[in-house]
Amino acid sequence: METNELSILQPRNISNNNVFPFVFIGDEAYPLSKNLMRPFSRNNLTPDKRIYNYRHSRARRIVECAFGLLTKKFRIFETTMLLSPENAELVTLACCVLHNMLREREGSVSAIHEELLSLEEREKRNPQEQPIWRRASNAALATRNLFVQYFNSPEVSVPWQNKFAFINEHNI
């Protein structure tokens, strides 16, 4: 990613002529960069930043849950794949297709819900370590601020995000 060799898609216009880059979602351990978003530090959060952190966290949990479900079914994801990138991509896609077929057959919507609850419980028991502080580039800060504005805009805000931001502020 640092050498621009990942072939990340070009930024796209998704709202009010704002161009958004495609980004990876990371936790506090990762540095903020143009294509890698991390949450804001928990110190002195404004309501807009709390809402961004909430939306960021929701995206991360969904991705982690999906990967967790794949890993439970297919052991190949438990370790490094000794495959070429092209073959690793094919194996991953095949596992996704097989997983969806099995899910339809099993009707396991409740299993997904249980996995999300399990992930939330693990996060509560094992709070993440203190982040390592690094100075992000102006481009990275601008990208994250673009997402902050987007998540707080009337067109994409969700009714519960304000309530959640308030609850988290007071650790209720």
Keywords:
4 strands, two-stranded antiparallel ribbon, 172 residues, mainly alpha
The proportion of strand residues reads: 5-15%
Number of alpha- plus pi-helical segments: 5
String of helices and strands: EEEEHHHHH
Radius of gyration: 18 Å
Mean pLDDT, to the nearest integer, reads 81
Q: Could you give the order of strands across the largest sheet?
A: 1-2
* Major β-sheet annotation: 2 strands, antiparallel
How many domains make up the coordinates? 1
Shape: globular
Unreliable spans are: 127-131
Fraction of helical residues: 40-55%
Strand tally = 4
Termini separation? 38 Å
SS-based class: mainly alpha
Protein name: DDE Tnp4 domain-containing protein
GO molecular function, one term: metal ion binding
Cofactor: a divalent metal cation
Domain DDE Tnp4: 23-100
Short description:
It is found in: Nucleus. The chain has helices at residues 47-73, 85-106, 109-125, 138-151, 159-169; strands at residues 12-15, 18-20, 24-25, 36-37.
Describe this entry's structure for a reader.
It contains 5 helices and 4 strands. With 172 residues, it is mainly alpha-helical. It has one domain. Strands 1-2 form a two-stranded antiparallel ribbon. α1 (47-73) crosses α3, α1 (47-73) crosses α4 and α1 crosses α5 (159-169). The termini are far apart. Mean pLDDT is 81; it is low at 127-131. Its main location: nucleus. Residues 23-100 form the DDE Tnp4 domain. Belongs to the HARBI1 family. One of its GO terms (molecular function) is hydrolase activity.
